[in-house]
Design brief:
Length: about 220
């Protein structure tokens, strides 16, 4: 079985869970996007919101985190993951076309980057998902990591880090350690996959964009 077929099967399970447990929910689930075969870095966010253009069920393009938004892409640009040309186009365009969303995903693919969410249920706002939603979608997130097999996983926020690794962390202590000793990713077993997981501040909203940039700059230098 090809890797893409396996991932497509996972996406169908995501849709089926949404249909079964949230039959009246009008927002489409957001999937993963970018280099889906052994990327250098998988970025794991918490859950998507209605601000993502592809949460519209009528959207005909790819569905991956932060389509049609700006804040996270600004952080990625400051950390060196996005070109000046791309961030300029993101800043200038109030609405993304399907063509631009596909082009940006192609860029991520070329750079060995993959974006996804721990919980693939799209919320109406930035509220954190409850424990039931995390428990419902966590097995699929683990399988996604097994299928995609990234070299590094960047977990944005203590919640994804805790659920993926089984370890609690204080991001302030982790940040201080990075400043003193540099970035030292730990290898972790997630399901059947072994990968190095790096906790990072959430890059917008309730997080700390500046510290996220500082950590991501160091991630960008990893081999």
């Amino acid at each position: 079985m090809h890797q893409s077929e396996t991932l497509n099967q996972l996406w169908e399970e995501v849709r089926e869970l949404n249909r079964k447990y949230f039959p009246d929910h009008m927002l489409a689930p957001i999937l993963g996007g970018g280099q889906s075969i052994n990327p250098k870095i998988m970025f794991v966010f918490i859950n998507p919101t209605a601000r993502n253009t592809s949460s519209d069920r009528n959207w005909k393009g790819p569905r991956y985190p932060f389509i049609g938004t700006k804040s996270v892409w600004r952080v990625f640009h400051r950390a060196g993951f996005l070109t000046d040309s791309l961030i300029s186009r993101i800043e200038e365009n109030p609405e993304w076309s399907v063509e631009f969303a596909s082009e940006l995903e192609g860029f991520l693919r070329e750079r060995g980057l993959y974006l996804t969410n721990l919980v693939k249920w799209t919320g109406p706002d930035g509220s954190l998902p409850d424990r039931k939603k995390v428990d419902l979608f966590l097995p699929l997130a683990v399988r996604e990591i097994e299928i995609v097999a990234p070299k590094y996983v960047v977990a944005f926020g203590s919640l994804p880090y805790r659920y993926l690794t089984g370890r609690a962390i204080k991001l302030g202590d982790h940040y201080d350690q990075i400043v003193r000793q540099g970035l030292q990713p730990e290898e972790v077993q997630i399901g059947l996959a072994k990968t190095k997981v790096i906790p990072c501040y959430f890059p917008v909203g309730r997080g700390n964009p500046q510290r996220a940039v500082e950590i991501l700059k160091r991630v960008n230098l990893l081999k």
